[in-house]
Structure formats: C-alpha cells, structure tokens
Task: structure prediction
Amino acid sequence: MTKEQIVALNEQLAGASPTEVIRFFVEKYQDKIALASSLGAEDQVLTQMLTSVTDNALIFTLDTGRLFSETYELIDRTSKKYKSNLKVYSPKAEAVQNMVQAKGINLFYDSIENRKECCYNRKLEPLKRAFEGLDAWICGLRAEQSVTRTDIQVVEWDENNNILKINPLANWSEKEVWDYIKENGIPYNPLHDKGYPSIGCQPCTRAIMEGEDIRAGRWYWENPDTKECGLHKK
Result:
C-alpha cells in the first residue's frame, strides 16, 4: 500500500469512532484481519469492540513463557466472556533454550542487545507466524502512551511485516480507555489496580510511582527512547 493510500485512509476515517474504524476494516478484509492482543487495558477494549461487530473475530496473543499469572488467568476469562478462542502463539522452544544456555535466564538485564534478542525470540518470531495469511492487524497503541508513540496514526503501514496496521485507539486518552472498561464491564488484569498501567513479561515489568510515565515500568532499567520490543518499530 502506498503512502498516498495511507494518507487517504486516515483522512477518510478522521473523526470516526474506534468501533467504526474496526467495522470499516473488518468489512474490507474479512478473515484477513486480526487483533493482536497483549491483554492490556487497550486490547481488552478492542476485544469488546471487535466481537461486537463480528461473530468471527480473529484474536491472537503471544505467550512469551514469562508472563504474570494474572495475565494467563485473564486469557481464560476473556475467552469465556466473549466466546472467542484466543489463539496463543508460543516461542520456538529450541531458540529460547539455546539463547538461555548461551546468555543466561535473565540475559535481558545485561544489555539492550540481549533484551532485544530475548524480545525477538519470545515475541517477534511468534508474531511473524501469527501474521501469516493476514493483510491487516489491529493493535492498541495510543499516542500518549510514551515518547516513542506520539506520532502514530490510526492507519499505518507496518514495514517490518509488510502488513497494514490499524490503531483504533490512537487518539484516546487513558481516561477514555478506563471509562469504557467500566461502562461495559470489560474484564481486565488486576495488576492495573496495583500500579501496573502497562504489563508485559514479569521480569521486565514493575509498578510505577505517582507522576511517572505510564510505560515507565516497562524495561524500567533502560532509557525511555529504547523502550520498545520491536513490535511497533517504524
């Protein structure tokens, strides 16, 4: 898809609600579009929206093998509530085994390079498998989440994976997310109530303190401008 087409889509959908954005692309791509869910607050909102516009929602998540127990429990609760079988993609066991054997179980604390290698094996490689056969994916990025996301658009081209990327909540505030969750009785991770606004792998996530950026607890030992795993790199 050309840059001009991306610009045209963003102009066409300017002012559209997240549900309207989702409906537009579901009608356009049918079974060639899926929601990539991390089970975070934004993705739970999108799960509710997506299942409200189609009975054949395609939703997948990545089990890195190091998630919080609360996240695994939420996968089960979400699947049951929305009667949607979340497809779970796991990393290749041999790749993880070789990485850990060579660099240690907690290699990600030693360098950014090691952390990115861990993210690749546990997240990016499974994501590539999840994308097979798809033309577009929906994700829960919001512009105000971090300094690495301030310029995101509702519709983008994912050059890393050669696939259209849809960010229905790009312009939503955190308050709008939580208001929607409460109004619609959407299940969410109880860690959110314990100071974890952004939740990833257990060893790489901590609670944040009052006044900190909402993604300050992710890869908390790194500088803010490196805090992406590669899923959303432009």
